[in-house]
User: What shape does this take?
Amino acid sequence: MSFKRFHVPIMGFTQSQSRESGMEKIWRQLREEIPLKTQCLVHPQRWNADFDGLAEFIFRNGGSETLVNVYAYSWGCGHGFIKLAKALRKRGIQIPQAVLCDPVYHSWWRPWRGLFPAVWNGPIVVPGNVWDVHSFYQRLNRPQGTSLTLSNKLAINRTPVEVKATHEYMDDTSEFRDKVIELATRGVARTEPAGRTEERSDDVPAETV
Assistant: This one.
């Protein structure tokens, strides 16, 4: 049996499976909310996990017609989400929804850039197989969420929402968690005109489940 949709939570720089995090709490709630017989909930991934391997796993168990929702925090946005989106794009897989929490810019050459104020770094360039992005940011301390640029000109970049919390608690806020649960538990129809994206028109899903 192929899964119709995958849900992928991606943790931040200081997080791992050895300690509970806001991303793990969201994962536990998603287990109660989504139909696991037809959809696959991936366990929370570290920000620097093997995302090419994960994309191949998703392709093997869902095919190119499956859809992937991503929920990411901190460097899980600036690195993990971007790596996964690019790997999925190579396999013709679309990401209809992404929810990003205080997305911190990442660079292997200059990792300290993420500690600068957001206006001094970024933007994070989102690959063209991503269709709808919700984001949350804070300005109480650093690192802090930076701006997003969507490669797909038909994609929707929702107005970022400021949350009154410090970076280390952002993935535990109700604003972020509620948006993840809302989008994970409902389908979103895509009826974009053919041939108008940077991706091949046959890669664009006509509908989601």
Observations:
- The radius of gyration is 16 Å.
- Confidence is low (pLDDT under 50) at residues 188-209.
- Strands lie at 5-10, 39-41, 67-73, 94-101, 124-126, 132-137, 148-150, 156-157, 161-162.
